[in-house]
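Can anyone check this?
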Amino acid sequence: MNDQHETYKVEVAGLTRELPLFEIAPGIRIAILNILGDTELAQAAAHDLALRIADRNPEVLVTAETKSIPLVHALSAQMDLPYVVLRKSYKPYMGKAIQAETLSITTGAPQTLFLDEKDQKLLTGRQVALIDDVISTGSTLQAMRLIMDKVGAKIVAQAAIFTEGDRAKWTDIISLGHLPVFTEPKKG
C-alpha cells in the first residue's frame, strides 16, 4: 500500500512546506494545510498576520475549531489579546450557546458552530478579528459572521494563512498566500 500523496510546495511566513493533495470530489483536489503540531509555522504565520491586522484594532480573536486553534493561540500571545474558539459540537457545560450552520468543504457535510455561553459576554459589543487557517468556500467564515452578528460583535478583520480557489472572491480577506484548486480535465 502506497501512502504517498502528490504534494504542492508553498512558501509562507518565511517557511517552506510540502502540502499533500487530496481529492475532495471526482477530479478536484486541494492542498491540505494542517498546522496541528507545526509550532514553527503557527508562530511564523501568527507573527506575519499580527503585523497585517494590528491597525484594525481587534479586541478579541475568534476562530472555529480545530486546525486553526494553534494559529489563533499564537496570534493571541503575539498581540496580547483574548481569543474564542467556536466549537463544532455542543456540550452541556456550554449553557445557552449561540449557533450557526455551515457546509464543510473538507467533509462535504453540514456542520454547526457553537459559541459557548461564557464567551458571549467577551464578544458582545467588541471589535473582533475572524481567524482561520485556510478560507476555501467561505462557509465556515459565514457561520462565524452569523454568530458575531447574533452576539453583537463588530468584525474589523478576517484573516487566514491562505485563501483558496477563486482569488477574486477573497479581496476582503487578509492572508499570507493563496492556494489553487487542482482540477483534472474531463475524460472523453
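Reply from J.R.: I decoded it. The chain has a mean pLDDT of 92.
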